[in-house]
Design brief:
By secondary structure, this protein is mainly α. Helix content is 45%, strand content 3%. It has one domain: Transferase(Phosphotransferase), domain 1, CATH 1.10.510. It has a two-stranded antiparallel sheet with strand order 1-2. Helix 2 packs antiparallel against helix 9. The radius of gyration is 15 Å and the shape is globular. The two termini are 27 Å apart.
Length: 179
Amino acid sequence: MEYMSEGDLKKQLDEVEVFNDKRAKFYAAEIALAVQFVHQNGILHCDLKLENVLVESDGHCKIADFGLSKLGMFRPCKATAHCGTPFCMEPEIVKNLPYDQGVDWWAVGMIFEMLTGNSPFDSDEEEVSGDASAEDNLYQKIVNDEVSFPEDMTLAAVSIVTQTFDEGSKTATRVQRFI
């Protein structure tokens, strides 16, 4: 893969704390198109997060780090491996249930982090790494808690984030409407 001079979206976000709606929509659109492409080619990424979305010098994005991806995953296939980054895992993975393309659409909920600068499940990545009780607490939040939205978040953003977390792969067309 070629050098991506602007780093990853996490680096970009850390520099400005939050993205404005226009920038978040642009990145969400690029991520949604990339997710559609990999799914059309039978690939589940399984570890989508801001750190795995790289930014070119012209501002366009590319998904990286396919180390945990699953190949040959055309509908109606299901995967069962417990994999991914804890703070980005879909509830089905946390509960060790079979999962499909919904895992990547659920991760598109990173729009929340782009707009707020915070994880939707209120945990610190460093806090979770290596601490079993912190990881269990995070998993409980992912499975049981509803996302608490800031009052200043637009209705469109709240709607799309809610749908990515609630409906997984059914969200593809709704993400397109948001962008």
